[in-house]
Design brief:
The complex is a heterodimer of chains A (about 290) and B (about 375). In chain A, a hairpin with a 2-residue loop joins strand 1 and strand 2. Chain A starts with a helix and ends in a 9-residue tail after the last helix. In chain A, helix 2 (about 40-55) packs across helix 9, helix 6 packs across helix 7 (about 160-170) and helix 11 packs across helix 12 (about 265-280). A two-stranded antiparallel ribbon of chain A has the order 1-2. Chain A has 12 helices and 2 strands, in the order H-H-H-H-H-E-E-H-H-H-H-H-H-H. Chain A has one domain: ABC transporter involved in vitamin B12 uptake, BtuC. Chain A is mainly alpha-helical. By secondary structure, chain B is of the alpha/beta class. Chain B folds into 2 domains: about 30-145 and about 280-355, Response regulator (Rossmann fold, 3-Layer(aba) Sandwich), CATH 3.40.50.2300; about 150-275 and about 365-375, Rossmann fold (3-Layer(aba) Sandwich). Chain B contains 13 helices and 14 strands. Chain B has helices spanning about 1-20, 45-65, 85-95, 110-120, 135, 150-165, 175-190, 210-220, 230-245, 260-265, 285-300, 305-325, 330-335, and strands at about 30-40, 75-80, 100-105, 125, 140-145, 170-175, 195-205, 225, 250-255, 275, 340-345, 345-350, 360-365, 370-375. The N and C termini of chain B lie far apart (about 70 Å). Classes of the chains: A mainly alpha (about 290), B alpha/beta (about 375). The interface of A and B includes residues 5, 8, 113, 137 and 260 of A.
């Protein structure tokens, strides 16, 4: 029972990581950019959501607003930060991304104060089904479901739809794709919008789970997202999912059994180092 | 030709301004500068803001009442982000700005680092709320207006084992200077009060998700939980414990002492007990004036951090008065000789190490606010080290 609860806690955490990492892996797959600043839209989703909810909107509406705000911010980030740097070496974009994350974190602190914001009413957190002694609240269930839906949706989209195929073409060969009438620019904007929407939703849900939206809440998740993306095989969607869940569960058990030896956040990077030494291409077969 | 005139004009102008700055203003009393460092940005910015407001309030009130020795106090504030590697350059910077004493409004890691710098410069230095034991051991110029971590931990053991009568306890410890010193003190005295420690779990300050710890606590089924943390970790921890079905009494410490904790945990915060320094139900005038004035200035209820920095400024001001001046050695003597000086966190008397004995205020969250629950006045149990 106890181990099962640890597993469930780990899977919920893994679902959160998956939603962040999916966006990261999408963007890497398309642009070969490690989008560290992804955490900024995660936090943005949290802030927009809590402000909307506290001004009287029902939680579902607040969630929708959070997702929309994040989805709008993503392409803006692409347009202002990445597009001008596309022809430069990749580390330039990486550094710009880190700089943006730091700037936005402090921007949130300046705008919304250092104490963090809390939801005035948090009905999804305080209620949930009693699954035979395991108390899962609706926020955790929403996180798990969102991650599953997102992954299934993206999987189908990439394989089944015309736009999805166009995406993959843009990665493999942008010029040929263009000659088929696919606009790489539109594909990229769409990718950023989608990835950011997922991150915004994750930020909102995590904010509900902690009942605390803080300026720095995205940091560790973003760096871990990076570790997950590398573990899962850069650009590999199913690999990213497995890596996320694996990490969530490893952290869950590690918190209890390894807490004297290794800080919980260090577990992610420790695993990353070990796995990469053994299999430099990551866990799953790369594309 | 025009350029030469412009340059000459600029040089003359600058020289005049500089000369003017050298001449002491006629009639204006020179202020006494007090160095102050706190985490104004970074993860601890919440406490940094409270600390700054508490110190500023004290300075405003003292200056409005005529200042110290007829001179106004001036706070020279810098941000240390609660990081030791920031605190050291900040301390050095303050030393170069003509300060007569310094106060730490920051956490233990940063305070320990800065203490070494101030002690070496023989600059009187007060730690407002940082509780690691090594801070005062740095030297005779370092004082502390807070109860040390170990002392609070011992108080926590008495609260749980004797006052509440709970014997099976789980510890959830924040693994930094603060949490570890609290846990040490608790474990030291737990046996004396018949407490059996079922398990101890540690977590890092960045943690907000405690699913694994909640599952483990449920399995342990304790009667009480002694959990250290700050409001931004304790809030999520407590709400997740309650949401997970854990009904045991939760006892925290002054890290919880902020309205933010209650805002985050909401209904889950009801009934949580904390050992702290600020008694919201105190009828002492110096405490009441602080509580009321702070809420008016800040717009939110007072917390332990603000009360502590406020008290530190008060203690420093009376030391200047009693020393009759701002000479470092004289001020240090005056600080060491402080006896029963009334402050917002109780009467202050320093021992030979620069530590204080203070009864511990036990507060409980009732109807969304902190209220008095008990006072632990035990000079033997809560005696600070004298060396």
């Amino acid at each position: 029972m106890f181990y099962f609860e640890l597993l469930v806690a780990g899977l919920v955490q893994g679902a959160m990581y998956a939603m962040m990492a999916l966006g990261l892996t999408l963007i890497y797959g398309l642009l070969r950019i490690l989008h560290i600043a992804h955490a900024a839209v995660f936090t943005l989703g949290g802030y927009v959501g809590v402000l909307a909810a506290n001004s009287g909107l029902p939680l579902a509406a607040a969630a929708a607003l959070a997702v929309l705000a994040a989805a709008a911010a993503g392409p803006v980030v692409y347009g202002t930060v990445y597009r001008p740097l596309l022809d430069k070496p990749p580390y330039v974009a990486l550094i710009a991304s880190i700089g943006l994350l730091i700037a936005m974190e402090d921007g949130f602190r300046l705008l919304f104060g250092p104490y963090g914001l809390s939801f005035a009413e948090n009905p999804w957190f305080v209620s949930g089904p009693d699954l035979g002694g395991i108390f899962l609240n609706w926020v955790q269930i929403a996180l798990g479901l969102s991650a599953l839906v997102a992954i299934a949706g993206l999987g189908l989209f990439a394989v089944g739809s015309r736009t999805g195929v166009a995406w993959r073409a843009t990665v493999d060969d942008p010029e040929i794709a263009m000659s088929f009438g696919v606009s790489p620019e539109r594909v990229r904007l769409l990718a950023f919008a989608l990835a950011s929407a997922l991150a915004g939703l994750a930020g909102f849900l995590v904010g509900l789970l902690n009942n605390l939206i803080e300026p720095g809440m995205g940091n560790i998740t973003s760096y871990k997202g990076l570790a997950i993306v590398v573990l899962g095989g850069l650009g590999n969607v199913p690999g990213t999912l497995w890596a996320s869940l694996l990490l969530g569960v490893a952290e869950s058990f590690g918190t209890i059994y390894l807490d004297r030896i290794l800080d919980r956040d260090a577990i992610a990077f420790f695993i990353l180092v070990v796995v990469l030494m053994w299999r430099p291409q990551g866990l799953a077969r790369g594309r | 030709m025009a350029t030469r005139r412009l340059v000459t004009g600029l040089l003359l102008g600058t020289a005049t301004v500089l000369a003017g700055a050298w001449i002491p203003g006629a009639g204006a009393a020179e202020s006494i500068r007090i160095g102050f460092h706190a985490p104004l940005t970074g993860f601890a910015a919440g406490d940094g803001k409270s600390a700054r407001l508490g110190a500023e309030l004290a300075v405003e009130q003292i200056n409005a009442a005529g200042g110290v020795l007829g001179r106004p106090l001036e706070l020279v504030t810098y941000d240390d982000q609660a990081k030791p590697d920031q605190a050291v350059p900040v301390a050095n910077k303050l030393l170069g700005e003509g300060i007569r004493a310094a106060i730490s409004g920051s956490y233990s890691g940063a305070t320990r680092a800065a203490a070494a710098v101030f002690q070496q410069a023989k600059m009187p230095y007060l730690s407002a709320y940082a509780i690691h034991p090594d801070i005062t051991r740095t030297g005779e110029y370092v004082f502390r207006t807070a109860s040390m971590g170990e002392v609070q931990g011992r108080g926590g053991a008495k609260l749980i084992g004797e006052i509440l009568g709970r014997k099976k306890v789980v510890l959830i410890t924040l693994d930094n200077d603060f949490g570890q010193s609290l846990a040490r003190g608790f474990k030291e005295k737990a046996g004396d009060f018949g407490i059996e420690i079922l398990n101890e779990y540690t977590y890092s300050i960045k943690q907000r998700q405690f699913g694994a710890i909640v599952a483990s606590v449920k399995r342990d089924a304790p009667e009480a939980i002694y959990a250290s943390g700050y409001f931004f970790t304790a809030g999520p921890l407590v709400s997740q414990l309650r949401a997970g079905g854990v009904r045991a009494t939760i006892v925290g410490q002054e890290g919880y002492d902020s309205q933010n904790f209650i805002d985050i945990a909401k209904a889950a915060a009801e009934g949580v007990l904390i050992t702290t320094a600020l008694d919201r139900d105190s009828d002492r005038p110096e405490v009441r004036t602080f509580i009321e004035a702070f809420e008016k200035k800040a717009g939110f209820p007072a917390d332990m951090v603000a009360a502590s920095t406020y008290a530190a400024v008060q203690v420093l001001a009376q030391a200047f008065e009693r020393a009759g001046g701002t000479d470092g050695a004289a001020v240090r003597e005056a600080l060491a000789g402080t006896r029963d000086f009334p402050t917002a966190i109780g009467p202050i008397t320093f021992n030979a190490l620069g530590e204080i004995y203070k009864p511990i205020q036990v507060q409980v969250v009732k109807d969304g606010r902190f209220r008095r629950y008990a006072v632990i006045d035990d000079p033997v149990l809560l005696a600070p080290p004298a060396e």
